[in-house]
Amino acid sequence: MDKTSQSPLTLDVLVLVVSTCVCAYATYRLLAPSSAPPPSSRTRALPAITTPMTSKTPPAKPESMYLNNSKTMYDFTVGGRGEHFEFDDCKHVVKHICPRWKDAQPDDITVKIICGGITNRLYRLLWKDLCVLVRLYGEHTEVFIDRNVDNENFAELSRRGFAPTYFGRFTNGRVEGWVDGTALEPHQMGETSPFDLLSLIPKELGKMHAMEIDMDTRACLWTKIQQFEDLAAEISFDEPVKRDALEHLQLHQTIKQRVRWLQSVLPSHKNNDGKGLLETFRGSATAKLAYSFLHDSVFSHNDLLSGNILYNPAWGRVQIIDYEYGGYNYRGFDFGNHFCEHCGFDMNLNDYPSKDKQFIFYKAYLSTAAPALLQSLTREGHLDAFLGHLHEFGNVYALAAHMFWGLWAIVQAGNSTIDFDFLDYARMRFEAFEVQLDLFCPTAKDV
């Protein structure tokens, strides 16, 4: 990784800067508050990722025991009787799970299909002045998403008022509060007018990162990437076009090599989860502080694309939604991943946020995630330097995001029934890695 050269500091000045920044950092840590035929692949039957957290209840006694309670699940499968019953089944689960809907007559409930996701099917149900969202999990998504953890995260964030209301879950989905906002488009995430979304997004992300959630706090990045690698290795296709496209990705050669290199320059088991990197770090005290800050393990979204951010001008804030990939991860991954999402599904790298935009993003983020640190850096005159180092080091996490979602796309190509060219998306992510590797790590050798 190319490091910004630093003017040498005297020992006294270095001690003063480190002491001031570390004290502020410690203070902030203490105070931080359609149906389609199955894909023509020879994928083996893959085991679902599950944790023993739920208990099923009989299909009776509609009551509020489901509210913000992921451990209780209504034992009913929407669409289990056939796809043409899906609307009726959605009405049924809402009437059962949501007490205020129990007197609704099915014919009086309006159901509308909501477009937007490439993983789940979404329905909006409306009755009188009540409105909810029914989410049906995409087929085979249990292969790489632990739905127990997903629902536990959602319920906890709902309890804290960060997420829409978690009304309850059923066998193949859940009922959520409806949010009357509009999902952003990729280009809007970098806009400062007419609404300053470039600042509103990191402010909300900072609130999420400041939360302490009762779950495994070890960063999930490499565990997930290894999981996707293992699953991707099992994917094969009968169709020549897909088979050739998969072979062209060079999963077993180039991609694995790229992942191993990333593990050497980012926190991983290869460097004692970043401790080895800090011990050998050469740079100013402010640079080292930024380096350490990025590598913190915080409760992360891990999928902050435009479709997972809702906005309504009346709010004065954005609403982050969809936490199915959420969990503790390196802070920098949420940054680098989000910056990649500015490029959209067509991976137009010209839309990757500039240094100036990243400075705006990071300063807004610090105002909610680490206000004490922001005040200290501003007071001591080190803020611009700190933001510069976040920009320099944080972009490397964009490379990890390319590997993460490229491997994910291969797994999806072999399992999803959604009409989306996942293999071509994988190609774009891996090609973006190569382009940005030269930009972000121009001195990288033997990658």
From TrEMBL:
Q: Which domain of life is it from?
A: Eukaryota
Q: Which GO terms describe its molecular function?
A: ethanolamine kinase activity
State a GO cellular component annotated for this protein: cytoplasm
> Which parts of this chain are annotated as the region Disordered?
34-64
Q: Which SUPFAM superfamilies match?
A: Protein kinase-like (PK-like)
Which enzyme type, at the first EC level? transferase
What EC number(s) would the UniProt record show?
2.7.1.82
Keyword set, alphabetical order: Membrane, Transmembrane, Transmembrane helix
Annotated TM spans? 9-28
Is Transmembrane helix tagged as a keyword? yes
UniProt pathway: Phospholipid metabolism; phosphatidylethanolamine biosynthesis; phosphatidylethanolamine from ethanolamine: step 1/3
Q: Which GO terms describe its biological process?
A: phosphatidylethanolamine biosynthetic process
Asked if the record carries the keyword Iron, the reply is no
Q: Which family does it belong to?
A: Belongs to the choline/ethanolamine kinase family.
The protein's name: ethanolamine kinase
**Phylogenetic lineage:** Eukaryota, Sar, Stramenopiles, Oomycota, Saprolegniomycetes
